[in-house]
Amino acid sequence: MFSIAPIRFALLTLFSLWALCTAGCGSTPQPRHVPNQPPTEVNFSGFWELDYSQSDNIQAKLDSLVRDLRKQSAQRAGAAGVYQQPTAGVIIGGPGGTNSGTSIIGLAQMADLVTQSQLLEIEQDTHDIKVKREEDYALTCEFFAGQYHTLETPLGKEICGWDGHQLIFKTILPEGLTIQQVLTMGADRRRLNIATTVISDRVTSPFTVNRVYNRYQPTDSGYSCKMTISRGRVCTTEKQ
User: Fold this and answer.
1) 48, 120 in Cβ contact below 8 A?
2) φ and ψ at 40, to 5 degrees?
3) Mean per-residue pLDDT for 140-151?
4) Dihedral of the CA atoms 35, 38, 44, 46 (nearest 10)?
5) pTM
6) Which CATH architecture has domain 6-22+35-239?
7) CA distances, 57 to each of 65, 212, 232 (Å)
């Protein structure tokens, strides 16, 4: 089954409701159902560490999203023959009061919150997979040939399964929020990409962050992490 730690999941839900939604949110995007055929040649098992140099920068992605939304708004206004004066805190032109500054920042904050794990330990066999993430809830999924595994919970719908060579975890929360994580193995099997997409009814474009992980072999050394201005959080090994 696909399980998420209840306390952590509840916190994510509360955060999403506070940051992204107001009364009257619309319908939730529905998952794309495709045949689920676990590819035997793809095995994510092993230990993985985050590669900052190859991973997306949250602020850069946020700036790009804002530019895209403003461009879309300007195009809509131009097509309608209307001039719109920019308004602080709002990406003008979103239908139904969407694309507020609060909603856009909330979308980016949610993406950052669920992609912070620097170390992964993955266990996979022909029946299931468990992705254990540092300081975060584990992603687990049982494999069913020909279909995604879907679980209804009081907090929403959880879906997981294979789409070709990619493994998908999707969580559909109340109030129009969806979080999707797609795992893709590099051609050399030494690199793992996790694309996390957060979708909200309050923002007309999704927010996607790619985190790249490299294989490593754990030793008797542990990890010591510190914050740096130029590189963000940097982890190095230290002897225990």
Assistant:
1) yes
2) -65, -20
3) 87
4) 150
5) 0.73
6) Beta Barrel (2.40)
7) 12, 12, 10
The domain locations on the chain are 6-22+35-239
**172 phi and psi, to 5 degrees?**
-105, 110
Neighbours of 93 (CB within 10 A): 19
Q: 70-98 pLDDT, tens per residue? A: 888 787 766 666 545 555 455 555 666 68
Contact 77, 214 (CB under 8 A): no
Residue 178 contacts residue 172 (beta carbons within 8 Å): yes
Other Cβ atoms closer than 10 A to 225: 11
Question: Which of 157, 160, 165 is CA-nearest to residue 148?
Answer: 160
Per-residue pLDDT tens for 17-66? 434 433 333 333 444 444 455 566 799 999 999 999 999 999 999 999 99
Q: Determine the Cα–Cα distance for residues 69 and 63; give it in Å rounded to an integer.
A: 10
pLDDT for the residue 231: 55
Amino acid at the residue 127 = H
At 162, list the tokens: 């294979």
| Tens digit of each residue's pLDDT (9 = 90 or more) over 190-228 | 999 999 999 999 999 999 999 999 999 887 455 555 545
Q: Which two tokens stand for residue 194?
A: 């996790």
Determine how many CB atoms are found less than 10 A away from the CB of residue 123. 14
> How far is it, in rounded angstroms, from Cα 222 to Cα 126?
31
